[in-house]
Amino acid sequence: MNEFLDSINDESNSNILIVCHGFFMNTLQKELKSRGVNGQNIKRPKNGTLYLYEK
Q1: What are phi and psi of 14, to 5 degrees?
Q2: Among the four 20, 29, 36, 45, which has the fewest Cβ within 10 Å?
Q3: What angle do CA 8, 37, 44 make, to 5 degrees?
Q4: Distance linking the first and last C-alpha atoms of the chain
Q5: Contact (CB, 8 A) for 51 and 39
Q6: pLDDT (tens digit, 9 = 90+) per residue, 30-55?
Q7: Contact, 41 vs 29, CB < 8 A?
Q8: For residue 27, what is the DSSP state?
């Protein structure tokens, strides 16, 4: 997870779309929040729904 987020952090001036499994998304949002990224707190992600997180 950390390696993945570090690698996309280099693209900080671009919009990035991440498509993932619900379990991974829960872990991802926790790590994003710990890195100071703002977004919804999602307990049960829904299929095909776009969730926006911003620096």
Answers
A1: -115, 155
A2: 36
A3: 95
A4: 18
A5: yes
A6: 999 999 999 988 889 888 899 999 88
A7: yes
A8: H
